[in-house]
Amino acid sequence: xxxxxxxxxxxxxxxxxxxxxxxxxxxxxxxxxxxxxxxxxxxxxxxxxxxxxxxxxxxxxxxxxxxxxxxxxxxxxxxxxxxxxxxxxxxxxxxxxxxxxxxxxxxxxxxxxxxxxxxxxxxxxxxxxxxxxxxxxxxxxxxxxxxxxxxxxxxxxxxxxxxxxxxxxxxxxxxxxxxxxxxxxxxxxxxxxxxxxxxxxxxxxxxxxxxxxxxxxxxxxxxxxxxxxxxxxxxxxxxxxxxxxxxxxxxxxxxxxxxxxxxxxxxxxxxxxxxxxxxxxxxxxxxxxxxxxxxxxxxxxxxxxxxxxxxxxxxxxxxxxxxxxxxxxxxxxxxxxxxxxxxxxxxxxxxxxxxxxxxxxxxx
Length: 364
Ligand SMILES: [Zn+2]
Fold this sequence. Notes:
- The protein is built from 17 helices and four strands.
- The protein has helices spanning 19-32, 37-40, 64-67, 69-74, 82-85, 136-149, 173-182, 200-210, 217-222, 242-248, 250-262, 273-277, 279-282, 287-313, 323-338, 346-351, 353-360; strands at 41-44, 88-89, 123-124, 160-163.
- The protein has a two-stranded antiparallel ribbon with strand order 1-4. The protein has a two-stranded antiparallel sheet with strand order 2-3.
- The model is unreliable at 1-5, 9-13, 93-116, 184-191 and 360-364 (pLDDT under 50).
- Residues 232, 234-235, 237, 244, 249 line the site of zinc ion.
- This is RNA-directed DNA polymerase, eukaryota, Reverse transcriptase zinc-binding domain protein.
- Keywords: Nucleotidyltransferase, RNA-directed DNA polymerase, Transferase.
- Residues 171-256 form the Reverse transcriptase zinc-binding domain.
């Protein structure tokens, strides 16, 4: 039986009876128990005609209206479907039509675009902005959403639902039951991550690391791309996987040791990728400051990936001794600029954030 509707609050379909009525009722009851039903289901895109582009959870770990709030506000049709915004492949790549910046409806041809924006060639997007995009944040969001959408391929099949907590992607009472049981243990809290203090590119990078979506050598080889080696380009000691880059590589071990020391955290062992990504959930840091530490954790994951890319692709070898200070500076910038109630001091943050935070933050 096909069920039409959505788990997001502003779903256009709100019947007073039937399966969706009961599912939505169940959603509220589970939320009271700390289980977010919306985060457990994800849309599987077929033809994209029954999935809300901005409001459904179908790409990147959370609805696009959450990941890209500025662009969502500027879409002239915020209730559009995925099929209306999916990129199409350009037939001829010889002509690059310019973007009509004077038009209210901006048909962005990838290959050209707002200044500083270099999207992948060969794709045409059907954006319909209510005005021209021009601020740095808007262009940044456009760049990130374009990167996410560039792998989207529509098919003839109808859109369907996937249950994200089971390897089979199929919802069964048994799989739901085991998930609810697992939530009784503190280590399993917060299955999805999206830190509002961070720019979308950092959140997306973490989501990619969690879901094996980064172009690591192992992932590229699995897609049939021929490489001269699938071993880590930094240490050559193992196959280059996400777990190796972010947990086991010598560079990662050194950086995490420095991060834990910086935050005065002891007796924490990072055994696998899950431990690293969810470090802020179980590190001994007072609840209201753990989201700041999560900024540091996600920034570190991003910095390790950036260091790996610069080591592999850049002519100039990046300096390992600068990674930690880069992480400190970037995380300070994001926490202090995006969390309005904070009043952080750079020197304190740099030297001893754990002791500085309680006195420097005017949090309720
Ligand atoms: Zn390595």
